[in-house]
Design goal:
The chain is built from 28 helices and 20 strands. It has 800 residues and is of the alpha+beta class. Strand 8 and strand 9 form a beta hairpin. Helix 16 crosses helix 17 and helix 21 runs antiparallel to helix 22. The radius of gyration is 33 Å and the shape is globular.
Length: 800
């Protein structure tokens, strides 16, 4: 970059500078903040520039104080003519990460220290290795090594021209290195700085300096290879240049603004503990902007950033707010094809990502468009996208992998260096295929549509045992075999696990009949045939002793068995165990339920049978449990009631539907009381206050009812008390006007039970310069007619 370009760039950015900073006195402390914006990318050998987007990040350094002269002397390491800057690198609940730089008036650093505050906050339960993972995460960000000291390396500029005139030059040697927890960074080379000239900002004289450095950079990071249960190292070394400019403030000894560009090329090496190493060319590109703010300017900057966030984002529910997005959402194929043509022509990876993201978000709703878009990216030669697409397909039961897919997956898995050369996770394919095969084992998957691979594709993967060179691919072949034939291959899995294979740990849990696999679970093996309900309770819902030691005990009046937990993993474990051993576990549970001598036993056995689809309670039995049963039977009846309505039920008669929908509208519009709770009536552990309905809070935003979801009689009754609109009228209303549109369901009835639900589309009040803020929610009611009155058996809700 030539001097004139530097000067023009500097002058163009002067308007962005904060007001003039106060001149430094000898001792008083001052507070500043440094904003660092980075746009960068590491590219490995198989990545292509037109497909590899830049990562963008914003970070802050808080300069708690900047002291000079006598204050510097008090720091111990500094003397007269030196400054000491104290930094906060990051804050969290129990402390802060801090740093210190001591530097001379000419900018030469005489001492630099930075450290991470140990986390002191206690966590009730952590898995093995969680603390080490947390420590590693704090030493990297977004795949970039960011050790505490390196964050401060280039913050202090040198300024030592022989004469204060344009063209004066000086050179500095860079010899920076830091290491922590196995991570390393070093930067070595020579930087040449040139004084371009001076300028005045807010009445203060600043110097324009450009610089260029030829450097050698090295880094080492430690990564967890999850599917090998080991740590690997990634080492990068590269040579290149860093070119930049800054506005130097002599009163502070700091730059007010700095911008620089880095281009490096070299090699990356992936090293495994077993001695294997994979090498690939590597290239690093970075564009970086630094800005220094005093307290007032920092507050203004934060307000500006918040306003920008509100302008572009309103929450989780996203709606099209631009003309092109609205055209795409409306199915405008001409707009979609125009964007795709621009995507094909562009060589800018970020622009390509933006265009493709627009089409994917708003223009891919028509049948077949998503598959077409994926094929376009693969056909364009985006191998990293192909890898990610295959990894998603590896755990997509709705789209089974065929033989062609599996051949591509195997090609990636048998050579970990390929994924490394694409700079993507080596674990994705191995762990996604393993999880899919063990979540829906083909041998026991009741729904053939939820099997992870076609029979031929599964057999192709199974053939990798024991011939594949890559150990994880061999073990994945064994996982496939046991998922296809538990009786034949379970013993082999157990033997391999005893020999030290950690990749097979999830398969071992399934072979041993473990159904509760979440981190805090006891992970008990399947109980023996003669076990009672308490053993089954421990199997389904037991807690790891380390968690139990720190968790709050349940209320005395609420025995743990009332909260029995039975999930898909339990059902799979039982069916898999039956296929492996021939034991009729479901028959044992049926006998246990039939012979149960306590309500707690009925709840435990009934919950498991219900989850297996093997419990057939009649409507009358469910009603009996709910009307007069103990709390345990009420809990079982409530579970079975939801299953009773799994298929669309017959509609309730019009009188019942009108009565219930009218009461629901009253709760929405006027805050009227809802239905009393059956559980509050039947649960002796709770006071009887819930036996009568409590008033709902009045709505804080305007309430609208969708006309199409209301029977004519209710539209007529509520037309003067509620805003009843059509979907077209709601669509014409501004997205920034507050209001909640409720859509009511029809009322389904089976015996004394009904089900009804409502969905809400909510909008919050927003200014025109803010993005719309929307949310969605829904509530489902299961009601029971009891002594001529409707009571709520259960109410479930969701919100986004």
């Amino acid at each position: 970059m030539n001097p004139r370009m530097i000067e023009r760039l500097a002058l163009s950015l002067l308007s962005l500078l904060p007001a003039a900073l106060p001149a430094q006195a000898a001792a008083p402390a001052a507070e500043y903040s440094v904003e660092i914006q980075v746009r960068d990318r590491w590219m490995h050998g198989r990545q292509q520039p037109r497909f590899t987007t830049f990562a963008q990040a914003r970070s802050w350094l808080s300069m708690d104080s900047l002291r000079a002269d006598s204050a510097a002397g008090a720091a111990g390491a500094a003397g007269a003519g030196q400054h000491v800057a104290y930094f906060t690198l990051g804050r969290f609940a129990s402390g802060r990460d801090s740093g210190l730089i001591v530097f001379r008036r000419d900018g030469r650093v005489t001492a630099l220290e930075a450290s991470l505050q140990p986390r002191t906050r206690t966590v009730p339960y952590t898995q093995a290795g969680d603390s080490a993972r947390d420590a590693r995460r704090r030493l990297s960000s977004g795949g970039r090594v960011t050790l505490p000291a390196s964050r401060l390396w280039e913050l202090i500029p040198t300024f030592r021209p022989a004469r204060l005139r344009a063209g004066a030059r000086w050179a500095d040697t860079l010899a920076l290195a830091t290491e922590q927890e196995g991570f390393r960074q070093s930067l070595r080379g020579t930087r040449v700085s040139t004084l371009v000239g001076d300028t005045t900002v807010g009445g203060q004289r600043l110097w324009v300096v450009r610089d260029s450095a030829r450097v050698h950079y090295e880094e080492r990071s430690v990564e967890e290879e999850r599917t090998l249960d080991t740590l690997v190292s990634v080492e990068r070394s590269a040579d290149g240049v860093i070119c930049g400019w800054h506005l130097y403030d002599p009163s502070l000894g700091l730059f007010r603004v700095r911008s620089d560009t880095t281009l490096l090329s070299g090699e990356a090496v992936l090293r495994y503990p077993d001695g294997r190493a994979f090498r690939t060319p590597a290239r690093y590109e970075r564009f970086r902007q630094w800005d220094l703010y005093d307290a007032a300017a920092f507050a203004a900057r934060q307000a500006g950033l918040q306003a920008e966030r509100e302008r572009v984002s309103g929450g989780m529910v996203i709606v099209p707010t631009t003309d092109i997005a609205r055209r795409l959402a409306a199915g405008d194929s001409a707009a979609r094809d125009s964007l795709l043509d621009a995507w094909r022509r562009s060589d800018d990876p970020d622009e390509r990502a933006r265009l493709f993201g627009l089409v994917s978000m708003w223009g891919a709703r028509a049948p077949g468009i998503r598959a077409r878009l994926d094929s376009m990216r693969v056909a364009a030669g985006d191998t990293a996208f192909l890898y990610a697409w295959l990894a998603r397909r590896a755990y997509s039961p709705s789209e089974r992998a065929d033989v062609a897919d599996m051949r591509q997956m195997i090609a990636f898995m048998e050579e970990p260096g390929w994924a490394f050369a694409l700079n993507v996770s080596r674990d994705w394919l191995y762990e996604n295929l393993r999880q899919g095969l063990l979540t829906w084992p083909p041998a026991v998957a009741a729904d053939t549509g939820r099997r992870m691979c076609t029979p031929d594709a599964c057999r192709l993967l199974a053939e990798q045992w024991p011939v594949a060179r890559e150990p994880r691919l061999r073990e994945l072949g064994l996982v496939t075999l046991v998922a296809l034939d538990p009786a034949r291959w379970s013993d082999t899995v157990l033997a391999r696990a005893r020999a030290g294979s950690r990749f097979l740990d999830p398969a071992v849990l399934l072979v041993r009949g473990v159904g509760a696999t979440w981190p805090a679970a006891a992970k008990a093996e399947l109980p023996p045939p003669a076990a009672d309900w308490r053993a089954w309770m421990e199997w389904t819902s037991g807690t790891d002793p380390r968690v139990a030691a720190t968790a709050a005990p349940p209320p005395p009046a609420r025995p743990p068995e009332w909260r029995v937990r039975f999930e898909e993993s339990h059902a799979t474990a039982i069916r898999f165990y039956q296929a492996r051993t021939g034991r009729d576990v479901i028959g044992e549970l049926r006998r246990g339920f039939a012979q149960a001598e306590s309500d707690s036993a009925r709840l435990v056995y009934g919950t498991m049978l219900g989850g297996l689809g093997a419990l057939r309670l009649s409507v009358e039995e469910i009603a009996t449990y709910l009307r007069g049963g103990s709390p345990a039977l009420v809990a079982l009846g409530t579970r079975e009631l939801a299953r009773l309505f799994r298929d669309p039920p017959p509609r309730a008669d019009s009188a019942t539907a009108l009565l219930l929908l009218d009461r629901l509208i009253a709760t929405l519009v006027e805050g009227a009381p809802g239905w009393p709770s059956l559980r509050a009536r039947s649960d002796s552990a709770r006071p009887p206050r819930g036996a009568r309905p409590e008033a709902n809070p009045r709505p804080t935003r305007p309430v609208f009812l969708l006309a199409d979801s209301l029977p004519p009689a209710l539209r007529a009754k509520w037309k003067d008390r509620a805003a009843i609109v059509t979907s077209e009228e709601w669509a014409r209303r501004s997205l920034r006007e507050p209001g909640d549109l409720y859509t009511l369901s029809s009322v389904g009835r089976i015996g004394p039970f009904v089900r009804l639900y409502m969905d809400a589309a909510g909008r919050l009040a927003r200014r025109e310069d803010q993005a719309p803020a929307l949310y969605g929610s829904g509530t489902t009611y299961y009601l029971m007619e009891l002594n001529g009155e409707w009571v709520a058996v259960s109410i479930s809700a969701w919100v986004s």
